Amino acid sequence: MTSQPAPSAVNAAESAGNGxxxxxxxxxxxxxxGNGRWAxxxxxPRVAGHRAGAEAxxxxxxxxxxxxxxxxxxYAFSSxxxxxxxxxxxxxxxxxxxxLERELKRLESEGVRLRLIGNYRAFGPDLAKQLEAAVAxxxxxxxxxxxxxxxxxxxxxxxxxxxxxxxxxVAGEIAPESIDEAAIEAELDTAELPQLDLLIRTSGEVRxxxxxxxxxxxxxxxxxxxxxxxxxxxxxxxxxxQFAARQRRFGGR
Length: 253
Fold this sequence. Notes:
Layout: H1 7-14, E1 27-31, H2 35-41, H3 46-67, E2 71-78, H4 86-109, E3 112-117, H5 125-137, E4 144-152, H6 154-170, H7 181-187, E5 198-201, E6 220-223, H8 233-245
Parallel strand pairs: 1-2, 1-5, 2-4, 3-4, 5-6
């Protein structure tokens, strides 16, 4: 990654009003969709699409850091993805290990902090240990936070929050009437992160797929037909330009 901002994204952002909010989103989330279709179109196995998707992540991470985005959250593996064939799941786990081994030093030197959301321990103790070690090694970095959603499902996240708050109320630790939006947000996996500004989904699908349902309440949504392995700096900067041109009203008018 370089330290120079991406001119097209920054210039577009600086020239737009965006409802008085920052024209460069602090927090961007991406549903990285289309790896399988990309591979199928080329007569390749699905794992080839996932490998190409890992390269797209590298490009996008660089573009996000250069543009001044502070948090990039990626939907790497949903709680529903366990329905996929065992061979594909094994390939995905292997790719995660490979990505961490190859990219960790680069991420560390470029000031990227890793954070995990979801029940990543379901991938087994070895991969969980590797993930936790990567989080620990990058904990002091502050240029950009890369949040990886692994075995994540938003409905399960919200159910867990409800259960935790109910338990506290039963134990007398909190009054039921004190449970408000702030109390819920404090228990979310994304607690302490900036509010989500922009969610991008690639591949032309127009749905959230159980991703960050609470957090997207006032986020800008952008759906692009670009398949994830083809997503690059130009596509990311185009998304930032579209974000900068929107008027964010937050229900106020």
